[in-house]
Amino acid sequence: MASISDPVDEQDLGPEADPESVGRKILLDQLTGRARSRSDLAKKLAQKNVPDDIATRLLDRFEEVGLVDDAAFAHEWVAQRQEGRGLAKRALAQELRKKGIDDEVARAALDTVDAKDEVDAARLLVQRKLRSMRGLDEQVAVRRLVGMLARKGYSSGTAFKVVREELGADLNDPEHQGL
């Protein structure tokens, strides 16, 4: 048994792993569970000290066989984030940029979100949030709701329009009179 002060014998560590095998394993591990952008995968390979030339070669091969596809990733990302979190196109575009998606590819994915769907998502967000705002001054409620929509990437025009419509509907609802 080696003590702490004894140097570790190089042979005890086993053979050094082949960087290409290491890179391939990292990519497969990263792609298990969900798709990722080429940029995210390249960053992960760099973090694990996979040489750039090997990383590029592996990523090219993974693209060639369809395991890495930024266009498919962008479409999936937009659909999930717009539906699940109610994000507007502007916020989605920013997220795709952070993921390293090319502007043209991002634009094609964002074109799948239509303006009506975006307004419907904003409306749903406001309706959910209104439940917790009963009894607040209308000005305070408007400010908070518009702020929430702004953080999700909605334009001020859309945010104010949806908030005013939903607040008007809520205040005119006989069930909520006198609250």
UniProtKB/TrEMBL annotation:
<keyword id="KW-0963">Cytoplasm</keyword>
<dbReference type="GO" id="GO:0006282">
    <property type="term" value="P:regulation of DNA repair"/>
</dbReference>
<feature type="domain" description="RecX third three-helical">
    <location>
        <begin position="117"/>
        <end position="163"/>
    </location>
</feature>
<dbReference type="InterPro" id="IPR053924">
    <property type="entry name" value="RecX_HTH_2nd"/>
</dbReference>
<dbReference type="InterPro" id="IPR036388">
    <property type="entry name" value="WH-like_DNA-bd_sf"/>
</dbReference>
<dbReference type="Pfam" id="PF21982">
    <property type="entry name" value="RecX_HTH1"/>
</dbReference>
<protein>
    <recommendedName>
        <fullName>Regulatory protein RecX</fullName>
    </recommendedName>
</protein>
<feature type="region of interest" description="Disordered">
    <location>
        <begin position="1"/>
        <end position="25"/>
    </location>
</feature>
<dbReference type="GO" id="GO:0005737">
    <property type="term" value="C:cytoplasm"/>
</dbReference>
<comment type="function">
    <text>Modulates RecA activity.</text>
</comment>
<dbReference type="Pfam" id="PF02631">
    <property type="entry name" value="RecX_HTH2"/>
</dbReference>
<feature type="domain" description="RecX first three-helical">
    <location>
        <begin position="27"/>
        <end position="61"/>
    </location>
</feature>
<dbReference type="InterPro" id="IPR053925">
    <property type="entry name" value="RecX_HTH_3rd"/>
</dbReference>
<feature type="compositionally biased region" description="Acidic residues">
    <location>
        <begin position="7"/>
        <end position="19"/>
    </location>
</feature>
<dbReference type="InterPro" id="IPR053926">
    <property type="entry name" value="RecX_HTH_1st"/>
</dbReference>
<comment type="similarity">
    <text>Belongs to the RecX family.</text>
</comment>
<dbReference type="InterPro" id="IPR003783">
    <property type="entry name" value="Regulatory_RecX"/>
</dbReference>
<dbReference type="Pfam" id="PF21981">
    <property type="entry name" value="RecX_HTH3"/>
</dbReference>
<feature type="domain" description="RecX second three-helical">
    <location>
        <begin position="69"/>
        <end position="110"/>
    </location>
</feature>
